[in-house]
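Objective 1.3, modelling of assemblies. Example input:
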Amino acid sequence: GAVVSQHPSWVICKSGTSVKIECRSLDFQATTMFWYRQFPKQSLMLMATSNEGSKATYEQGVEKDKFLINHASLTLSTLTVTSAHPEDSSFYICSARDPFSGANVLTFGAGSRLTVL
Amino acid sequence: RKEVEQDPGPFNVPEGATVAFNCTYSNSASQSFFWYRQDCRKEPKLLMSVYSSGNEDGRFTAQLNRASQYISLLIRDSKLSDSATYLCVVNSGGYQKVTFGTGTKLQVIP
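Predicted structure (tokens):
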């Protein structure tokens, strides 16, 4: 099946710094990737849809200037949390459509746990 | 009303027991349905898709009831390794319309 690699798996940073998270499709090309955020005991919430070669589409309430998304190639999307604050501490997960499975099946990266001090 | 609702649990069941979870959805136009499994601090992984006629995969059975707008997951002969959170996922058209439930936590005890 499709494999999505996400890095780093965890990061601790100081308030005010920026953190970049990478999401790579290893054995397939992904023109579209999705970024989610999950707070403890809550469901995955779609933050934005990353489109290769064009601007990301952000969900309502997600600040595009704070969460910068770049999808520069068919296998890599990056999420940069700019000027991170403690309330940004969360589990960030990316996903892409699994081309080897049925319609609408998503495969996920392992997630990145961000802790902002 | 939430788009996708699940009982958060936890469901604590002994090994070998049969356990069932339900998940209700509010959008009658929803097209496809899935159960994902998420272990603590890990990413969700597809457990099984849910087909209109119901489907079975080993000890797991998924069913869809469009009239009442819910899907179910039945686990027979529970194993310790089944302990996880089970996420109900509903797709209402396109990948941007994928909605996750909050998950139902299952704890299988020896």
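The interface with chain B takes residues 6, 32, 34, 41-46, 49, 57, 91, 93, 97-98, 101-111, 113 of chain A (CB under 8 Å).
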